[in-house]
């Protein structure tokens, strides 16, 4: 559905779900991001390097040898993608969304223009997912310096990161929409985000866990992402298609949930 | 076709009836001042007009479009200037405007930005970040942001609240320019002087409804007469004066350290002490008379 609006002698076509609105909201994010991209990029490069030095080289050369036939430093390096994705999507989405609607009143200003909550949430989640898709590859780039051989299939890694990050950005937005105080994010981080990234197969293989935990891990989107990234690095399996489909479904469900919760929050 | 038409609009937040059977029509090309005390329902009314608040009952039309169904399309033709400064402080003046030009689907973003910069008289500060601007410049930018797409209807929500007199005067000049250019303006305010200076018509709102409407001069004549006298003195004396006027059926209101006698030209002369200060009746007299002396 679209409508042609005529104002002051000019016509504007406005669609019910309008790409122009999404682009405009994202342009605001880009303008702001240009003021702090250096710090974010520095962190995104340094964090995996430190982790790889500590876990990959530290444990890899002293305690752990190969894991599932992969050198431990490369096992951790490919797994670190999940860590980078969740920390560059769920957390910025939670805090950023809360600050923008609660303190800065940015969303009040945007929703006074021809943009609705669906477009607003979509744009915010898309922007975070794009950033995360980019920064999610940094651990892989760092791991190249620790001996990971480049493979053509690795070009799919940003896509896997993007899909997963879109879901976690939507998750963060949905959580922020329900939060009354910013302190409440501590509960979400401790009870949800930390367990998710610890049981994602980043630092140790899920196969070593009890059977019940292995079943639960299958429902962890980060675990599916780690498996897809390792597939791209060391060879795909046929089940990886199902993993990607599951991640897409996860992201779409969380996206709709985020829109619903933000509409309840912003429109009274 | 009126620019805004509200019929029997109601909106409650739990137990609080923020807007209560509101009827308001704003013809095109005028500046209507929505005057009311804090909690009168002005801001809720503004949010209803942008579709950010959904009315429980009533009919709402903006520029001929039904709300909330067509709110998004109506918003393309209106500009909103909020009460609170919600500019992006880390980015530049022109980037702030460019984002909103895109949000409003301006046909040419650079042209829209240049025009808005001229309105705000910030062309030479376009590359500066908003954080570097003075308070007055930021308010002018906020106003220009709502005008970046040259809207037909402008909603100003308490545009000068909390500003010092110099900045307020600057903004009044800008708003007056808009009015002169023929834009329809709905301006909520609780500053009487602001409404008196800028509004072609004033609607006095209290408890979620409009209780009086008209040109400032007509409202003054109708509700406060031609002259007001203010009597100063110690509280017990003022109380005695007040009782005497009330007994004589003359309308009196508290005016800070004094009492103000409304329509003093009709009051018995012997009740007015020699030291009383005589002045022309004002919109403030009307406002306090109609909305009550107690503030929320």
Short précis:
The complex is a heterodimer of chains A (268) and B (296). Chain A has 268 residues and is mostly helical.
Descriptive report:
The complex is a heterodimer of chains A (268) and B (296). Chain A has helices at residues 19-33, 37-62, 72-103, 106-110, 117-135, 138-144, 157-178, 185-198, 211-217, 221-234, 239-266, and strands at 2-7, 10-15, 66-67, 70-71. Chain A has 268 residues and is mainly alpha-helical. Chain A has one domain (18-266). The two termini of chain A are 24 Å apart. The model of chain A has no long low-confidence stretch (mean pLDDT 92). Chain B is globular. The longest helix of chain B has 16 residues, at 165-180. Chain B has 296 residues and is α/β, with parallel strands linked by helices. In chain B, strand 9 (201-206) and strand 10 form a beta hairpin. The two termini of chain B are 36 Å apart. Chain B has two domains: 4-215, P-loop containing nucleotide triphosphate hydrolases (Rossmann fold), CATH 3.40.50; 226-280, Alpha-Beta Plaits. Chain B has a six-stranded mixed β-sheet, with helices on both faces. Chain A binds chain B through residues 3, 5, 7-8, 10, 12, 14, 16, 20-21, 23-25, 27-28, 31-32, 34-36, 104-106, 108-116, 266-268, and chain B through 13, 47, 50-54, 70, 72-73, 75-77, 80, 82, 84, 86, 88, 90-91, 95, 98-100, 102-105, 107, 129, 145-146, 149-152.
């Amino acid at each position: 559905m679209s409508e042609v609006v005529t104002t002051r002698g000019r016509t504007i076509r406005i669609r019910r779900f309008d790409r122009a609105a999404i682009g405009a909201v994202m342009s605001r994010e880009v303008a702001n991001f240009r003021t702090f991209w250096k710090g974010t990029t520095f962190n995104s490069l340094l964090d995996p390097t430190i982790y790889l030095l500590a876990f990959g080289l530290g444990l890899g050369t002293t305690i752990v040898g190969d894991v599932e036939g992969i050198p431990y430093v490369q096992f951790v390096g490919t797994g670190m993608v999940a860590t980078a994705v969740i920390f560059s999507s769920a957390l910025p989405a939670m805090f950023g969304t809360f600050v923008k609607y609660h303190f800065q009143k940015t969303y009040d200003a945007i929703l006074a223009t021809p943009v609705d909550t669906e477009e607003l949430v979509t744009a915010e989640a898309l922007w975070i997912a794009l950033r995360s898709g980019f920064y999610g590859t940094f651990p892989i780039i760092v791991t190249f310096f620790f001996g990971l051989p480049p493979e053509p299939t690795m070009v799919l890694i940003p896509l896997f990161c993007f899909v997963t990050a879109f879901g976690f950005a939507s998750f963060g937005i949905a959580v922020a929409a329900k939060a009354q105080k910013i302190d409440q994010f501590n509960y979400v981080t401790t009870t949800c985000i930390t367990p998710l990234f610890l049981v994602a197969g980043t630092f140790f293989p899920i196969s070593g866990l009890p059977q019940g935990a292995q079943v639960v891990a299958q429902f962890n989107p980060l675990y599916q992402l780690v498996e897809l990234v390792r597939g791209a690095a060391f060879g795909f399996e046929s089940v990886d298609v199902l993993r990607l489909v599951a991640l897409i479904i996860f992201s779409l469900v969380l996206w709709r949930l985020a829109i619903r919760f933000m509409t309840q929050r912003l429109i009274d | 076709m009126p620019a805004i038409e509200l019929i029997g609009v109601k909106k409650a937040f739990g137990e609080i009836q923020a807007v209560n059977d509101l009827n308001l029509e704003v013809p095109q090309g005028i500046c209507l001042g929505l005057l009311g005390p804090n909690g009168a329902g002005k801001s809720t009314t503004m949010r209803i007009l942008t579709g950010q608040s959904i009315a429980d009952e009533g009919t709402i039309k903006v520029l001929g479009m039904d709300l909330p169904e067509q709110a998004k399309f109506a918003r393309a033709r209106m500009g909103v200037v909020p009460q609170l400064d919600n500019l992006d402080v880390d980015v530049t003046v022109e980037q702030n405007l460019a984002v909103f030009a895109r949000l409003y689907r301006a046909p040419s973003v650079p042209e829209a930005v240049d025009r808005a910069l001229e309105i705000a008289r910030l062309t030479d500060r376009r590359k500066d970040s908003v954080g570097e601007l003075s308070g007055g410049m930021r308010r002018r930018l906020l106003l220009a942001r709502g005008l970046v797409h040259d809207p037909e209807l402008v909603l100003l929500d308490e545009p000068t609240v909390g500003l010092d007199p110099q900045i307020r005067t600057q903004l009044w000049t800008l708003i007056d320019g808009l009015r002169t250019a023929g834009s329809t303006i709905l301006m909520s305010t609780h500053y009487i002087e602001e409404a008196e200076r800028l509004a072609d018509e004033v609607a006095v709102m209290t408890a979620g409804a409009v209780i009086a409407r008209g040109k400032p001069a007509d409202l003054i004549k109708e509700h406060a007469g031609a002259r007001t006298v203010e009597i100063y003195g110690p509280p017990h004396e003022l109380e005695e004066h007040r009782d005497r006027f009330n007994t004589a059926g003359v309308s009196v209101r508290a005016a800070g350290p004094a009492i103000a006698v409304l329509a003093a030209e009709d009051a018995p002369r012997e009740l007015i002490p020699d030291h009383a200060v005589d002045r022309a009746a004002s919109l403030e007299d009307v406002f306090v008379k109609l909305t009550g002396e107690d503030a929320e």
